[in-house]
Amino acid sequence: MNAILKISPVFVLASLMVSGMDVLLAGPIATIFAAIIASITEKLKFNDIVNAAVDNVKEMQLVFFILMAAYAMAEAFMATGVGASIINIALDLGLTAKTVAVAGVIVTSILSIATGTSWGTFAACAPVFLWLNHILGGNVALTVAAVAGGACFGDNIGLISDTTVVSSGIQQVEVIDRIRHQGVWSGLVLVLGAVTFYIAGNVLGLPDTTADAHQAISQIPKEAWEGLAAKRASAVTLLEQVKTGMSWYMVIPLVLVLGAAIKGLPTLACLFIGIISAMCFGLFEGTVTSVKTFLDLIYSGFSNAGSWVIVMMMWVAAFGGIMRKINAFEPISQLVAKVSGSVRQLMFWNGTLSVLGNAALADEMAQIVTVGPVIKNLVEDNVEASEEDMYKLRLRNATFSDALGVFGSQLIPWHVYIGFYVGIASAVYPLHEFNVLDIIQYNFMAMIAVFSILILTLTGLDRLVPMFGLPSEPQVRLKKQVAKQAEKQEEHSLA
């Protein structure tokens, strides 16, 4: 009974999220409920509960600064022409019905890295590629699935993605280290996804005629523009820049950020390089009229981060601190440890819990903040390893939370992601009646990402992917196996 009471705050948080309540309200309510449970089950004093909550929040301070800078850089890239230049460069290569989905998945993948938002990327790119698909005579479901899958790419590996930053913060790993850990795997997912979309375009027998992307934007009806403006105003600005055209050099800020990340610079340094370079090139291009207007963009980014995601993270961290104080996840830890015969199996179950949590909560951020602390504790409570190897396991946990949250959302019919994508697609391309299967049936990127990371983790084949392999036994061992081995040695010595 005591164990059920301790875990009950998780069910309260999950229930509130499923009911449609924003995590900004669900978090405080669940935290207060957790505090009440802590006082009942552990007889903790009020000050002890507050200290447990605040101490956990203190560990997230760097994450808050990263989130503010990430939101600021996203605003800068969307407004100065960095995002538009990426789209223009890709579309000027010339597309056919067979390749429009391939271009869609590649362009949205790159743009989502630059902007850090899958929703914003989809809103910006769906009008371009759906109307381009219409002109070329392509397959609507194939193209919309490509745009949806690619839009999630940067949300899973981008320096400025809130899910990347939050999932890394919960697992207490550096965002840069996270990106290095999964970088090659993510690249392979993108390549395999693009190849699969190309094969599908040929199998479906789509035509080879070419068309102009600017013509596609010109054909977007007024009602579609109005619907897009209501749902994602920044996407309208980006589309207008695509239509008028941006100089090729406006992509340089993104190149500088990626180069700084590869060089190993701290995350904050990479983000500020992006912000400053976007301002400099924007002033030269004319998309930034003055330093003051650019600072207004930065202010907007800071305020957007502070008005929701940072406050949400503080409450979630407080919730996690209280739950850790009362060892709330011990029953789950014991169950997973019992069915796991190795560290790899334990990590596989962590990935499975992330998928199940995403399906239950129907929200990737809710999954990250709810299940993330659970899988973190599972590793800490059940694995014996060096600090270096434990850090690698935490990197995989962070990748699980993010990748299976963002890409997994594309395969769950009732997920909020699917609802948003169907709504945007219907608004900008009213010639087709979109439904959830349009997003899911050809979403090869999501399918490859979700199944590959689970299979690679369980089988140990992740060692074939550079920097993605997990440490194996006997470098890392389950504590129960260590205990059994010690018991056998003791019996042998006594004999």
Set out the fold topology:
Elements: H1 2-18, H2 23-41, H3 46-58, H4 61-80, H5 82-91, E1 95-96, H6 100-115, H7 118-136, H8 140-151, H9 153-157, H10 162-170, H11 175-203, E2 210-211, H12 213-218, H13 222-231, H14 233-244, H15 252-263, H16 267-285, H17 291-325, H18 330-339, H19 343-361, H20 364-382, E3 383-384, H21 387-409, H22 416-428, H23 436-440, H24 444-459, E4 477-478, H25 479-494
Antiparallel strand pairs: 1-2, 3-4
Brief rundown of the structure:
With 495 residues, the chain is an all-alpha fold. Helix content is 78%, strand content 2%.
Characterize the structure shown.
With 495 residues, this protein is mainly alpha-helical. It has one domain (2-494). It contains 25 helices and 4 strands. It has a two-stranded antiparallel ribbon with strand order 1-2. A two-stranded antiparallel sheet has the order 3-4. Helix 4 (61-80) runs antiparallel to helix 17 (291-325) and helix 6 runs antiparallel to helix 7 (118-136). The longest helix is centred in the middle third of the chain and has 35 residues, at 291-325. It is globular, with a radius of gyration of 23 Å.
